[in-house]
Design goal:
- By secondary structure, the protein is of the alpha/beta class.
- The chain has 3 domains: 199 residues, no CATH class; 152 residues, Reverse transcriptase/Diguanylate cyclase domain (Alpha-Beta Plaits); 237 residues, TIM Barrel.
- β4 and β5 form a beta hairpin.
- The protein is elongated.
Length: 645
């Protein structure tokens, strides 16, 4: 009764009904239960009908006055959102007016369904906050109340009629706001569920190989540490079997990565059929697998386990949709048995033994012996050569073009280091980059790469090619503040605009020391340089971590792209990663595009940029410039890609 008395008192011109928002806000909504507005005594039906019709006739006035008041508040929304609010305003005004006029609660149902749909769209797209919707709802309610009073005065309606109509308006607002809250809460729950699923997907990808589904190096190392700890306590035997496929690179080079990936999946299935469930099979990368075994599996010795693995690979592999490709493949296996101080030590010794099996003729296994440490001597010789390589000017850069997938326009290149050794010949990065990292030489060599790449990009800019330059930065470089100074010096010396340089950091490197890395990346970003996460999806960053770093682009690892052609799950993962980038307002970049079907799927998913052999292999500077010329001139006959440096 107190509320009703308050609304009756509001009959005077300009007074606000009970429940007025302190900001004086409003936007319509309608959903009122049957009989909700029933009072102790019903006003004359004819007066209510006339009042409802009068208000309905002034629906345009309600809309224009609500828009005027919301505009005066200074709260600006995008035009599509404003149109949605106006639709809700008009629908709700008409529905409430008809309800007052006595048409029955049913007339509000259609309006209620439509306004609920609009509120759901606003919540789903996060186009307007719950606070903003509530403010506009109160504004609309206040304007409607004023129009009701004016119409009642014009019609000389009784106080009882006006009070009843104001009650109906207030109830309409209250139940509508309940519906709004439901819509926003439902959307919040859906968003939380989606983020949880994406977190789980990324967590799985951080510890598993996306191509085979096997545990990756990170998870295998953790399991070996656990196995060594159990062995130390119980004095049970342990062993690691390092498996490397023979001549796999030749298969990739001759038949393509698609066949190579299918073969890796088939090999995985064969090995899983041999490995005991209590043991673990993992993929360390490329064509390298590992089996870790303990206790009962080793009762007959790790050599028998290796023989079973080799035997499992002997039958030919039939690949392709129609099994039209028949391949045979063997493997070299290195065995390291017995306790070690760390997981790294056990795998290292198994790796050395595997190389001995390779040297002995392949398709066999070898058990680690201390004499095999001669391999270390070879590494020392390689290290000595590396220390002289920079001074001897033996390093060169190759440049792999990158394209905007929206219009297939070349936008940049990635600088890739090569080693032209006078005796060894052209050495690929995989053969020397890990040693550069291990010895710390990567800092000096990385500084040279920055200088060389920025100088080349500046020269292309001067020649009329506004190409961006991407440079990979190692974890060792990121560990010190020298990197910031090196980048700044390279930009100053070359005259290259900072925004034309992108620094690429692998996801694993990014997570080594989160606090220091974040601070260093902020300093790099302050120079105006772009930052990209390389090999994204293979590390173990979370959504929370990504939001802490000033990241401009996510480079999706090639292992995900390779799964697009015949793997529905791979397509789903790409969709997830691209949508993650869009949710964080970060550019998405696909690596290793080799097939037209992969390109079509990536463009359909609205991936921003990409690179791969489908467009061009890594080129020297002259060949890269020729590529730009050919690409920008539609009339030029396409030239074959120059050979890889």
């Amino acid at each position: 009764m107190a509320a009703r008395a308050s609304i009756q008192a509001a009959h005077s011109k300009g007074a606000r009904p009970n429940g007025a928002h302190p900001d004086g806000a409003a936007a319509p909504v309608v959903a009122v239960p049957q009989g909700a507005a029933a009072g102790a005594a019903e006003p004359p039906a004819e007066e209510l009908r006339a009042l409802g019709e009068a208000v309905r006739a002034r629906a345009d006035q309600v809309l224009s006055e609500t828009v005027r008041q919301t505009s005066r508040s200074g709260q600006v929304v995008h035009e599509p959102v404003q149109r949605s609010f106006e639709r809700i305003c008009t629908n709700s005004t008409v529905a409430v007016a008809r309800w007052i006029a006595g048409e029955g609660l049913e007339v509000t149902l259609d309006a209620s369904r439509e306004t609920s749909k609009i509120f759901g769209e606003l919540a789903a797209h996060r186009a307007a906050s719950l606070h903003e919707v509530t403010r506009r709802s109160f504004w609309w309610r206040n304007v409607m109340a004023d129009v009701l009073r004016e119409c009642a005065a014009d019609l000389q309606s009784s106080t009882q009629t006006l009070t009843h109509a104001l009650n109906m308006l207030q109830l309409s607002l209250e139940f509508s706001l309940l519906r709004v809250c439901e819509c926003f809460e439902q959307e919040r729950e859906r968003t939380d569920e989606a983020l949880t699923r994406r977190e789980e997907e990324l967590a799985f990808l951080a510890t598993h190989d996306p191509l085979t589904g096997l545990p990756n190096r990170t998870l295998i190392l953790a399991r070996v540490e656990q196995m060594l700890a159990r062995s130390s306590r119980s004095q049970t035997p342990v062993a690691a079997l390092f498996i490397d496929l023979d001549n796999f690179k030749g298969i990739n080079d001759t038949l393509g990565h698609g066949v190579g990936d299918e073969l890796l999946q088939a090999v995985t299935a064969r090995l899983q059929g041999v490995v005991r469930q209590a043991d673990a099979l993992g993929r360390l990368g490329g064509d390298e697998f590992v089996v870790i075994a303990e206790d009962l599996s080793l009762a007959v010795g790790p050599e028998l386990v290796a023989e079973r693995l080799l035997e499992a690979l002997k039958p030919p592999f039939k690949l392709g949709a129609n099994e039209e490709t028949c391949l045979t493949i063997s493997a070299s296996i290195g065995i390291a048995a017995g306790h070690r101080a760390s997981a790294g030590d056990l795998l290292r010794d198994a790796d050395i033994a595997m190389y001995r099996a390779k040297l002995d003729g392949r398709n066999r296994f070898a058990v680690f012996e201390t004499e095999m440490q001669n391999t270390v001597q070879d590494r020392m010789e390689l290290e000595m050569d590396l220390r002289q390589a920079l001074a001897a000017d033996e390093f060169v850069l190759a440049y792999q073009p990158t394209l905007a997938l929206s219009d297939m326009r070349p936008t940049g290149v990635e600088a890739l280091i090569r080693w032209q050794h006078p005796v060894r010949g052209l050495v690929q990065p995989d053969a020397f980059i890990p040693l550069l990292e291990e010895t710390g030489l990567i800092t000096e060599v990385g500084r040279w790469v920055l200088e060389e790449a920025c100088g080349q990009a500046a020269a292309w800019h001067e020649a009329g090619y506004p190409i961006s330059m991407a440079v990979n930065v190692s974890g060792r470089q990121l560990d010190t503040d020298e990197l910031v100074a090196d980048i700044e010096r390279a930009l100053d010396n070359s005259g290259l605009a900072p925004e034309a340089l992108t620094i690429e950091i692998t996801e694993t490197t990014l997570m080594r020391n989160v606090e220091e890395t974040a601070a260093r990346l902020v300093a790099i970003k302050a120079l105006g340089v772009r930052i990209a996460i390389d090999d994204f999806g293979t590390g173990y960053s979370s959504l929370a971590h990504l939001q802490r770093f000033p990241v401009d682009a996510l480079k999706i690892d090639r292992s995900f792209i390779a799964g697009l052609s015949n793997n529905k799950e791979g397509e789903t993962l790409i969709h997830t990663l691209v949508q993650l980038g869009k949710a964080l307002a970060i550019e998405t970049f696909a690596e290793g595009i080799e097939e037209q079907k992969e390109l079509s799927m990536l463009r359909a998913e609205d991936c921003d940029s990409g690179q791969g052999f489908l467009f061009a292999r890594p080129l020297d500077a002259a060949a890269a410039e020729a590529f730009f010329k050919t690409w920008v001139d539609p009339g030029a006959a396409p030239a074959p890609s120059p050979p890889q440096p």
